[in-house]
From TrEMBL:
Highest classification ranks of the organism: Bacteria, Pseudomonadati, Fibrobacterota, Fibrobacteria, Fibrobacterales
Entry's family note: Belongs to the glycosyl hydrolase 10 (cellulase F) family.
Entry superkingdom: Bacteria
EC number(s) given by UniProt: 3.2.1.8
Name by which UniProt lists this protein: Beta-xylanase
Catalytic activity, as annotated: Endohydrolysis of (1->4)-beta-D-xylosidic linkages in xylans
Keywords from the named record: Carbohydrate metabolism, Glycosidase, Hydrolase, Polysaccharide degradation, Signal, Xylan degradation
Residues of the whole record sequence present: 28 to 355 of 472
Chain ranges of the GH10 domain: 25-327
Origin species: Fibrobacter succinogenes (strain ATCC 19169 / S85)
Gene Ontology MF annotations: endo-1,4-beta-xylanase activity
Length: 328
């Protein structure tokens, strides 16, 4: 029988879902792992390669959970995406001790990137080097992060340079959300595009943009903020710069508490399919990663959303699963 994975392989693309180390500790239904490895050819750790997980105390690195996932991927012939090196969130408390010491903070970030990328060199094929560094409200950098406040925007360029020096074969991405809301100078994607142009011009090693694509189906008349069409426009602009577009954290949730009807689930499936169209049709787009497997285990509750994934609470495929399977 065809699976997402076998069809993705035929199409020369990656389709995947996150892994979470808690799931390896038991407690998952018996068919979970079977589903996961038969349907997907790429994985990303939900939390296990983040700063707080890999360097919980200064200079003391912990790769155990990340290693487990890399081993799982290797045993099952899957590609591994690394997530994420420089991000404002999930940074351990000790880093903030240095927020007024630019030199020290630069050294902390450089050492972190060198150690983590070095540890998984040759095993992690691509990294989110910088995650969510753009403001969500206005076209400019996010100013609240410890990295921005302590170092300034140059932490971004430097992070790419450091990662590339350690693993010149790894694909290096800038990753962010709300990139499907238009490619104009006032939107996040427009601001990002200007930065990508500058990076390319200046020889900063950036190979891909990750679009998280956490979108919401509002079930109102308008249904969506943002659209697959505008993400496709971004892909086309990036192609001119020889930079790839990847969908890295897809989920299409409904508001918590509302009743989700069969036709809502069908529309959700069409939207999943429209985002997949980009990956299948744009030559510089190669990855379709979903931020979870079953609606039962999803971060979306924290966003006041629900039912954003392609398997239901009982690990049964939803209309969204069928819709992408048929398209592949
Ligand atoms: C989320 C995880 O899913 C949660 O388990 C964690 O508590 C918080 O982070 N953008 C990202 C991801 O880049 O790392 C986030 O993952 C979701 C939003």
């Amino acid at each position: 029988d065809e699976t997402l994975r076998s069809l993705a392989d035929k199409n020369g693309i990656y389709i995947g879902a996150i892994l979470n180390s808690q799931w390896f500790g038991g407690g998952l239904p018996g068919n979970y792992e079977q589903i996961h490895k038969s349907q997907f050819n790429i994985v990303v750790a939900e939390n296990e390669m983040k700063f707080d997980a890999t360097e919980p105390q200064e200079g003391r690195f912990n790769y155990n959970n990340g290693d487990k996932m890399v081993r799982y991927a290797q045993q099952n012939g899957m590609r591994v995406r690394g997530h994420a090196l420089a991000w404002h969130s999930q940074v351990p408390g000790w880093v903030n001790n240095y927020k007024n010491d630019k030199k020290k903070l630069l050294a902390v970030l450089k050492n972190h990137i060198e150690k983590v990328v070095g540890h998984w060199k040759g095993q992690v094929a691509e990294w989110d080097v910088v995650n969510e560094a753009i403001s969500n409200n206005e076209p400019q950098w996010r100013t609240g992060s410890v990295w921005y406040q302590g170092i300034g925007p140059e932490f971004i360029d430097s992070a790419f340079v450091w990662a590339h020096a350690v693993d010149p074969d790894a694909e290096l991405c800038y990753n962010d959300y709300n990139l499907e809301q238009g490619v104009n100078p006032k939107a996040k994607a427009g601001f990002l595009l200007e930065q990508v142009k500058r990076w390319v011009k200046n020889g900063i090693p950036i190979h891909c943009v990750g679009s998280q694509t956490h979108v919401e189906d509002t079930t109102t008349d308008k249904h969506f903020i943002g659209s697959p069409d505008s993400l496709r426009s971004l892909a086309k602009e990036l192609a001119k710069l020889n930079v790839k577009l990847k969908i890295t954290e897809l989920d299409i949730g409904f508001k918590s508490g509302i009743n989700v009807s069969k036709s809502d689930l069908e529309r959700q499936g069409q939207t999943f399919r429209q985002y997949l169209d980009i990956i299948l049709e744009e030559p510089n787009a190669d990855t379709y990663l979903i931020w979870g497997v079953s609606d039962k285990w999803s971060w979306l509750g924290g966003l006041n959303r629900q039912k954003g994934l392609i398997y239901d609470d009982n690990l049964k495929p939803k209309p969204a699963f069928d819709s992408i399977l048929v398209r592949l």
